[in-house]
Structure formats: structure tokens, C-alpha cells
Design goal:
The structure is a single chain. The protein is mainly alpha-helical. The longest helix has 28 residues. It is globular, with a radius of gyration of 19 Å.
Length: 226
């Protein structure tokens, strides 16, 4: 059960790596730190909503998810525009990606502090699968939510790549960017949207990590990236 839940979180992070590598042929070393940024934004948004008096947990979580995805997607787009687009034709983007990883992790450390940021359990409860000699195997509600969320998002992402114009543009850029551009595909826009979607999914992973483990820190993106 724990392996499936952790694998679901890693799966959401891995989509961003796979999308960028498939189209640009470059490993986005900063993507783990985008996941970390998503976790911090989810925590900050959660605390703000609670402080202004919202008490309905489903509403809070939905708003937190939307805010985290939007702001983290903006981070992903900014990183692509600043660090990758000007250097796309050379080996330099790989070095630039490593540099952006350090920039983002140190930015979070300076802005939020180096201490672990805990949050009290938001989603509680669960089900006992079996019990024997005092050993209890439980399936918690947050574990169910993490796995179901991942499966739904993977299904939506698969449909996006296989059935939409943006998905066709992505697959065209993956095969041959020059020919795709000659046939009317906006390569820069397609690559930027790839970073945006990958960052938004990383934000979901960051929020799931926060809800499941109850903490975030500036170093968790590096560990996830490795």
C-alpha cells in the first residue's frame, strides 16, 4: 500500500520529466524543485484560507489545488523562458537546468527557512483490511485519494496527448521540430505548454505529498528528482 501511494506521487513527478525529455531531449533537473515549490505553495495557500475563516475541508483542498497548479505552472513557464529557451540548441540547457535546481531550492530556503514545515492531519480516517496478533493493516482515506487522483490525472493526460491538437503538436515536435515548424506548429508555444502542464502535475504531486506526509522542506525536490 505504501509503495503504491509513493509510486503514485513519483508518477505525477515523472510525467514532467518524460514530457520535456521526449520533446526537447533534455532532462529537466529543476523539475524536482518545481515539485517542491508546488508543495510550499499548497501549504501557504492552505494556511491563508484557514486564517481567513474557511472551514469546509473539501472546498479548501479544491482551492489549494487550483492555486498551487496555477502558480507552479507559472514557475514552470518562467523557468523554460529564462533558462532553457535561449539555450535550446546546445548542451548548455542541461547545465542551466542544474543551475535552476540550485536557484529554486535556495530561493525556497531563504524565503521559507530551512526548517521542516509541518501541517496537522487534514484528511483522517480509513479502513482496517485485516488484523492479526495486534498487527493491523489499514488503508487510510488519504492513501485512497492519492492513488485515485493519480489515476484520473494520468487518464486525462493520456487523452490530452492522444486526442487533442496540443497532443499532436507535442508528438510532432518530438519527431522533428524543424518539420513541425514548417507544417505550422508553434514549437516554442508547444514546448512552453509542455513545461506548464508538467509543472501543474508536479504541483498536484507536491500537494499530495504534503497531505500524505504532513510536511514540506526545501530539500525534498532534490531527493525526489534523484
Amino acid at each position: 500500500i505504501n509503495g503504491l501511494v509513493l509510486g503514485s506521487i513519483y508518477g505525477l513527478i515523472a510525467i514532467g520529466y518524460t514530457m520535456v525529455y521526449g520533446i526537447v531531449g533534455m532532462i529537466n533537473f529543476a523539475h524536482g524543485d518545481i515539485f517542491m515549490i508546488g508543495g510550499f505553495i499548497a501549504l501557504i495557500a492552505f494556511l491563508i484560507l484557514v486564517s481567513i475563516g474557511l472551514t469546509a475541508i473539501p472546498v479548501i483542498l479544491l482551492l489549494v489545488l487550483m492555486v498551487a497548479m496555477a502558480i507552479t505552472a507559472l514557475y514552470g513557464w518562467t523557468v523554460e523562458c529564462i533558462a532553457y529557451r535561449p539555450l535550446r540548441q546546445w548542451l548548455a540547457p542541461m547545465l542551466s537546468a542544474i543551475g535552476m535546481s540550485f536557484v529554486l531550492s535556495n530561493f525556497a530556503q531563504v524565503a521559507q527557512g530551512a526548517r521542516v514545515k509541518p501541517v496537522p492531519p487534514v484528511i483522517t480516517g480509513g479502513y482496517t483490511l485485516f488484523e492479526s496478533d495486534g498487527f493491523v493493516v489499514r488503508l487510510s482515506n488519504i492513501q485512497i485519494i492519492v492513488v485515485v487522483t493519480t489515476v484520473v490525472l494520468l487518464a486525462i493526460f493520456s487523452w490530452l496527448v492522444a486526442r487533442t491538437r496540443l497532443g499532436r503538436d507535442m508528438r510532432a515536435c518530438e519527431q522533428d521540430q524543424t518539420m513541425a515548424a514548417l507544417l505550422g506548429v508553434d514549437v516554442d508555444r508547444t514546448i512552453s505548454m509542455t513545461f506548464v502542464i508538467g509543472a501543474a502535475l508536479a504541483a498536484v504531486a507536491g500537494m499530495m505529498y504534503l497531505l500524505y506526509y504532513g510536511l514540506v522542506d526545501f530539500f525534498m525536490g532534490f531527493i525526489a528528482g534523484i
